[in-house]
Amino acid sequence: MRKMTGAQAVLESLKREGVDVLFGLPGGVLLPLYDAIYQSDIRHILVRHEQGAAHMADGYARATGKVGVCIATSGPGATNLVTGIANAYMDSVPMVAITGQVNTFLIGKDAFQEADITGITMPITKHNYLLRSAKDIARVFREAFHIARTGRPGPVLIDLPRDVTVEDVEFNWPEVCLPGYHPSVKVHEMQIKKAAKALMEAERPVIYVGGGVKYANAHKELSELALKINAPVTTTLMGLGCFPEDHHLSLGMLGMHGTRYANYAIQESDLILAVGARFDDRVTGKIASFAPQAKIIHIDVDPAEIGKNVRVDIPVVGDAKNALEGLIKEVAPKPQSAWTEKIAEWKRDYPLRYIPDINVIKPQYVIEKLCELAPDAIITTEVGQNQMWAAQFFVHKDPRKFVSSGGLGTMGYGFPAAIGAKVGMPECEVIDVAGDGSFLMNSQELATAVINDIPVKVAILNNGCLGMVRQWQELFFEKRYSATILGRTSPDFVKLAEAYGALGLRATKPSEVEPVIRAALASDRPTIMDFIVNPAEKVSPMVPAGATLSEIMELEFCEESDSSHLERMYAKSRSEILGQEE
Amino acid sequence: MRHTIAVIVENRSGVLARIAMLFSRRSFNIDSLSVGTTENPEYSRMTITVQGDEEVLEQVIKQLSKLINVIRVSELDPEDSIERELAIIKVSADKESRAEIMQLVDIFRAKIIDVSQRSMIIEVTGDEEKINAMERQLRQFGIKEMARAGKVSMVRGAKVIKA
């Protein structure tokens, strides 16, 4: 056994867990750890705000399937990670967050930069640890990675007091022994038989797929099953790409801004096979009238998800891949049916659509062009209209290529997540679809991208407002645009990019969209594309909050007057800010 | 509907906080909670009484089971288990009332564990109803202070709940 410091033991543990990159920002109590990082060959990406580190680790994990690791110092560093940890927890992302902590003898004394981060993150981590002795480092790190990546993945936080990192220790790599942690991987054969029987008897089945299929690497099995029994597949935001959207059995996304045909199919179905999805309120609409005629089979690795939001007829606890493999064996092939014809008819009659325009850029058009010019790119998103348009109008064909904050809905996620994804998948094109509101929430990470030479691309759908909230105000608050108008002038994103040493490009007319995208894709530098889009455009279709899925409505397409009205408001807010009369 | 569950947990700092936080976070109502060591010093046992229907109970059990430090969660069937609570009650007692209080203590098979010129402390164990009844009876003399411990419970017969 080798003797080393606690800090070196941390690095040794990370190396043994296969960690190749850390996203972090140092601080006083982390000096010994950062000294060890300096002397190790592990890559460290210095961020400009700790929230960026957490989202980068998250984006890295979603794109690669490996555990993402972020580091922040005690107190404010640690609390700055909190949003990123909560985000990872809601979307079941494997992550290990390492926080510095004050010396053990100062814990509880309200020492400088002390925060009870294990207390703070208890409800938003799968588990967390406060280390009190260097001899526990190897065990705790090994357990943390094991917990983060197995079962239903999730973030684990390790709080690392300064004195623990300077303590001498003999490094000993133990086996994981967690008597209270036994994720259910194997599936119950009886339940698979029941589920298969129900699938065989169903006339109008729908397979409803969530992020669990992606985490279990079960997308091939999913396709095999769907094709074998000719069942249509709809995915959640987290499940996008688990089933190719250009396939005739694909229903695209369901729920609030899902396709009309996915929502109609759910409401008309007589059997729902839910795989690695959790019946979130944005998916189900009014829960009492969700899929009224359907029996529900629910496959989930987390038993607590089964029966949490909806009644389940056939629960199957276990790994999605094992469960789907079991089902493929049990079911007999089924031909196309009246049901698949009905689906095709709905798809023909109610496609996703928008009205193209030759004068103003429609945001949906930008997404279509991105999809046309970079069909294999990893798309990350911010949150709001940009996210929904990216979900709707990009044709998702591969799992792990759509990286978006689903459960928590974190604005400011997409850009750092793109950096993390690009670090993990350097050969892939990575594009953050952003809004002018959310991009500014973590735009400081432009410095990180430039200095570390991480050529991510950002497509800002610049509509001068907090678009999704503005949309709700238009629809439900009689166009009283309270605190949602950002205006056209602050800041100039092209100049902002240039100020950081990145490339800035702008398109103001539809004809400029393609050249700008081509220039961005040709660039080997971090690049911002500023698309000045129609501000009045709304995300459609939409299930109003609390309504049944079948009440999905096509929003009336914006009129010229709506956008000119908004542009006038932008001008007014600008003149008010500057104290000038128009 | 009330349910009693036994939870075997790792005997470590912070475990109680995790469980308390889980209950508040998921809006589960705790009626009573007690913690103590078990026959194995590495584990503690909690007895938790919760309010809710079968679905709530199922979620409580599943969510508790997800905690890494929780080794085992079992519901105790009220028909097939015994439960005990303990209370110590300080009542006003002077020369006139003392005899009457001692008589009550006798009837309830409770114990007097402290006596002074103007007060007595009574220890009573039993199920919840018995302790409630004792409290009601003592109220007429003036209860100065009362401390009640949470319920502990165990399955009858040879069956055991352990890690």
Summed up, what is this model?
Chain A is of the alpha/beta class. Chain A is 39% helix and 16% strand. Chain A folds into three domains: 3-170, Rossmann fold, CATH 3.40.50.970; 189-349, Rossmann fold; 363-578, Rossmann fold, CATH 3.40.50.
Give the arrangement of secondary structure elements.
The complex is a heterodimer of chains A (582) and B (163).
Chain A: E1 3-5, H1 6-16, E2 21-24, H2 31-38, E3 43-46, H3 50-64, E4 68-72, H4 76-90, E5 95-101, H5 117-121, E6 127-130, H6 137-149, E7 155-161, H7 162-166, E8 168-170, H8 189-201, E9 205-209, H9 211-215, H10 219-229, E10 233-235, E11 250-253, H11 260-268, E12 271-275, H12 281-284, E13 295-300, E14 314-317, H13 320-330, H14 338-349, H15 363-373, E15 378-381, H16 385-393, E16 402-403, H17 414-424, E17 430-435, H18 436-439, H19 446-451, E18 457-462, H20 467-476, H21 493-500, E19 503-507, H22 510-522, E20 527-532, H23 560-578
Parallel strand pairs in A: 2-3, 2-4, 4-5, 5-7, 6-7, 9-10, 9-12, 10-11, 12-13, 13-14, 15-16, 15-17, 17-18, 18-20, 19-20
Antiparallel strand pairs in A: 1-8
Helix pairs in contact in A: 1-2, 1-6, 3-4, 3-17, 8-13, 10-13, 15-16, 15-22
Chain B: E1 2-10, H1 15-25, E2 29-37, E3 43-51, H2 54-66, E4 70-76, E5 81-92, H3 95-107, E6 111-115, E7 119-126, H4 128-139, E8 143-155
Antiparallel strand pairs in B: 1-3, 1-4, 2-3, 5-7, 5-8, 6-7
What does this structure look like?
The complex is a heterodimer of chains A (582) and B (163). With 582 residues, chain A is α/β, with parallel strands linked by helices. Chain A folds into 3 domains: 3-170, Thiamin diphosphate (ThDP)-binding fold, Pyr/PP domains (Rossmann fold, 3-Layer(aba) Sandwich), CATH 3.40.50.970; 189-349, 3-Layer(aba) Sandwich (Rossmann fold); 363-578, Thiamin diphosphate (ThDP)-binding fold, Pyr/PP domains (Rossmann fold, 3-Layer(aba) Sandwich). A 6-stranded parallel sheet of chain A has the order 3-2-4-5-7-6, with helices on both faces. In chain A, helix 3 crosses helix 17 (414-424). Chain B has helices at 15-25, 54-66, 95-107, 128-139, and strands spanning 2-10, 29-37, 43-51, 70-76, 81-92, 111-115, 119-126, 143-155. In chain B, the strands form 2 sheets. A 4-stranded antiparallel sheet of chain B has the order 2-3-1-4, with helices on one face. A 4-stranded antiparallel sheet of chain B has the order 6-7-5-8, covered by helices on one side. The longest helix of chain B has 13 residues, at 54-66. Classes of the chains: A alpha/beta (582), B alpha+beta (163).
